[in-house]
Amino acid sequence: MSARDEMLARIRTANAAAGAGPTGRLVPPVEVQHGDVDLFCENVADYRATVVRTREGEVAGAIGRVVGDLGIGSLLVPAGADPDWTTALGPEVSVLQVDDGTAISYDELGAVGATLTSSSVSVARTGTIILDHSAGQGRRELTLVPDRHICVVAARTVVDDVPDAVARLAALGVEQRPLTWISGPSATSDIELDRVEGVHGPRTLVVIVVDDD
């Protein structure tokens, strides 16, 4: 027996003696702290995003006004989004419904006026929005390639800080999904610290916060 075979045999013997360990992830219970929605809005605005406050039943009107103000002619909407959200759009706005199986090129995405999505969890202290790309949020390129993103955030999904967000995401069972963390419109700086927008994602971010009734 070679030294390699002997070493592997010892490892197998040790593993067998140890027995099977616990299965699944052990996630300690965490009491998630609900976030201050006013603080969330303040921090989002500080990133140069636009914040619109509205209430249940008035979301479609808020979306219609945003689309009109920005002069958006085409709106991409992922499968699973609330169908009522587009009911206040004028006839001049074309709505493109996209599901996970819809083939769409980057050129087509770049020509879209804006993407409209829901969101999963948001963080008050950092002004961060998290997409888990479940129903109503679409796959990642739908929110990264178009130049504008209109994102609907339910006030009840705003948590206090990042650990609360991680705990909430774990409770939602999103471990196998890609996550996109959004803190304002895409912006970076070159070597001379000149701000450059729209390089890594949308140049314009509009956050529609739906307050609890």
TrEMBL record:
InterPro entries: FTHF_cligase-like_sf, LUD_dom, NagB/RpiA_transferase-like. It comes from the Bacteria. It holds the Pfam family LUD_dom. Residues 107-210 form the LUD domain. PANTHER family: LACTATE UTILIZATION PROTEIN C. This is LUD domain-containing protein. The lineage of its organism: Bacteria, Bacillati, Actinomycetota, Actinomycetes, Micrococcales.
